[in-house]
Hints:
Layout: E1 11-16, H1 21-32, E2 36-43, E3 50-51, H2 52-55, E4 66-69, H3 74-78, E5 84-87, H4 91-103, E6 107-110, H5 123-126, H6 135-139, E7 141-142, E8 155-157, H7 161-175, E9 186-191, E10 211-213, H8 221-229, E11 234-240, E12 246-253, H9 260-271, E13 277-279, H10 286-289, E14 295-302, E15 305-312, H11 316-330
Parallel strand pairs: 1-2, 1-5, 2-4, 5-6, 6-8, 7-8, 9-11, 13-14
Antiparallel strand pairs: 3-4, 9-12, 10-11, 12-15, 14-15
Helix pairs in contact: 1-11, 7-8
Amino acid sequence: MSSVVSDKTQIRSAVLGAAGYSGAELCALLTRNPHFELCFAYASAGRKAEPFSSLYPRFQQQVDVLVEPWTDAEIGRIQGKVDVAFLALPHEASEEVAPLLMAAGIVVVDLSGAFRLKQADLYPKYYGYEHQHPALLNEAVYSLMEWLDKPLPQLISVPGCYPTACSLALLPLLNAGLVADDCIPVINATSGVSGAGRKAALNTSFCEVGLNAYGFFKHRHRPEIEQNLGRKVVFTPHLGNFKRGILATSVVTLKSGVSAEQVKAAFVNAYAAKPLVRLTATSPNVADVEGSPFCDIFWQQDGEQLVVVSAIDNLLKGAAAQAMQAANVKFGKPETAGLFAFEKAGAL
């Protein structure tokens, strides 16, 4: 059971993938959101049931929920007892279970890439499998919340961490028509090792990681970024020797004659009323967004060349906090509810 006192106005929720970093952050956010009740938490079928605080001891006496092994038979148990299910699962697992939950009348907020791309034929190339539910790709709404322009349906697809940082940085310029028509944005983004998940692997072990680039031209977030921006990009991700956070540097060529005042106006107009984007006076540091739901953005212009730097916590604004933001909006609650209830999120 949740440590939040239940009442009839609370949205009953379940988290699938609660043992992983993003799922754990979601459990913490839901527990501290007065409008939601964390009713069920699940891990993979092969695990034994155990208290959440045994997986993440720092949440002892804070998040009081039993993490149970998931099988599809659980749908019958939670049907009628859960309003929304958050899926912090591998892509293929989310794709398989989402339609089953939807058939049970449950809203699905999916943190995987299973429903982000609108073109099913991109999945074999970038995700390595054939999409089994292509009709759901058009049904799902992609919840880059600062740029949401339609109501959220039963299936909500939460953006990836890199695409969140990069898209928030560049969409104001593109939306204002300031970027040269033939410009291909060049994006370099560095993530902490938590972006690789909790499962042990030598190449993402903290002691083995220095700073390296990977996924040249074939990273699965590239087509997602291109879908968001409406143009091709050169996207190169990097893995850095720190726990959490993303720092993205995006370089674009502006149209001839674009002034510094026009650039500033584009960002201010886009984000003045957006509480989770901060326009900063100095270049962002991942340490300043760690444990927070913010995206910090800074830019520098030299004639027609513009560099935009953005920083997010990959587990929060790049995953759990954006999922919570979407669920708040979906159920008519304040957009930032539960996101400032504690000083620092703590799966890591």
